[in-house]
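Quick question: what would this complex look like in 3D?
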Amino acid sequence: ETGVTQTPRHLVMGMTNKKSLKCEQHLGHNAMYWYKQSAKKPLELMFVYNFKEQTENNSVPSRFSPECPNSSHLFLHLHTLQPEDSALYLCASSQPKGTVGGYTFGSGTRLTVV
Amino acid sequence: GQNIDQPTEMTATEGAIVQINCTYQTSGFNGLFWYQQHAGEAPTFLSYNVLDGLEEKGRFSSFLSRSKGYSYLLLKELQMKDSASYLCAAYNNAGNMLTFGGGTRLMVKP
């Protein structure tokens, strides 16, 4: 365990479904992130939250909707996804200055869209 | 824009030394991270360089040259458990963002 917990570990959903990914950390970090990891592609930053405020949306389609109710929890709400959205979704957290201790990643949610 | 390049795959022998290179062209650069990721697991922090030079941490060392936009990760006395992907990532201080390269998959053979 890294200190960042993601649930579920695996998710299969249809293109018309609505589902949510959850991320939780109790490391005292105040910055949280969503990354997408597809086969043979670099980790892609999706969203950045600093002190619960979204500070970065890396041109992510609106079918992905993040929510950060407090500094310890981060959600990614999914709806009307496409098969190409199938990937490993990683959550990470850090101090507001990400260089202090680096980012701590969760183990990810393996998403398959059918 | 952000551009980070590293080799896709490398193979090395147990007990040997391997160097994984990374070149970057990024805006707002303020440091270079290396992460290790075993298949199906979370990336884990290995090293962070903000100043030029070599940082040594046990069997792993990392080097940075800011003027050349270049870094490498050096792994000594390779063990089978070192078989993993190694991710190079550039940190942008202004946006508190980490941009990753595609990762280098290292296979250690007996």
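Answer marked as accepted. Chain B has no helices and eleven strands.
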